[in-house]
Amino acid sequence: MGETEKDQEDINWGNNEDDGDLKRLDFGLTIGTGVEINAIQIGISYSLGLANISNFADDGTKISNRVLAISAGYNFGGNAPQE
């Protein structure tokens, strides 16, 4: 069978190459949508980090976050009839 290799490393946070590997501050955009069918809620969203969080930008390294999120929920109150 195939071999599995695992590696673990601590991340040092800081604002320059001497202090850490990655910058702490990030900012970006998020877009999403959702639907509610009876009491069931389903949603999806995408987030795009706009900041370069790499402290090693001198050599052209660019690191940014991207997140795809899927959510599901249940409304225990249900859809009460409106008066």
Protein described:
The protein is mainly β and 83 residues long. It has a domain at 28-74. Helices cover 0% and strands 35% of the residues. The protein contains no helices and 3 strands. It has a 3-stranded antiparallel sheet, with no helix packed on it. A hairpin with a 2-residue loop joins β1 and β2. It is extended and about 55 Å long. The N and C termini lie far apart (64 Å). The mean pLDDT is 86.
Individual helix count: 0
Q: Helix and strand succession?
A: EEE
- Principal-axis shape equals extended
Main beta sheet, described? 3 strands, antiparallel
The share of residues in helices is under 10%
Q: In short, what is this structure?
A:
The protein is mainly β and 83 residues long.
Write the topology of this structure.
Layout: E1 28-37, E2 40-49, E3 66-74
Antiparallel strand pairs: 1-2, 2-3
Keywords for this entry:
83 residues; mainly beta
